[in-house]
Amino acid sequence: MKYTVILNDGPGTERTFNGLRLAGALAERPDTQVRLYCFGDAVACAAPSQRGPEGQDITELVAAAVRAGATLRACKSCLQTRGLADTVLVDGTAPATLTDCADDTAWADKVLTF
Question: How much is the pTM?
């Protein structure tokens, strides 16, 4: 099964925290592929040293999902708007365009939005 998980809220919210946890759990399953796409404030999840709503290590959640085979793309214009365009992103993450998100959406069997 192929999943695209779209995150919209910043790393300090339960919604994004739970979306990342689910993406990581799905990526660990055999015969499952996961692509994460971050819009808006969620692009901060691709930057290092991010914390969740109760201090959880968001950077480690992203890294664990990537180690399990997920990919994470962050909206390039959202990164620019937030002054993060020149930030070194967490390993396994990359800036992307709306066309990339559209491709990931068409590719997926299921799209989950948080």
Answer: 0.92
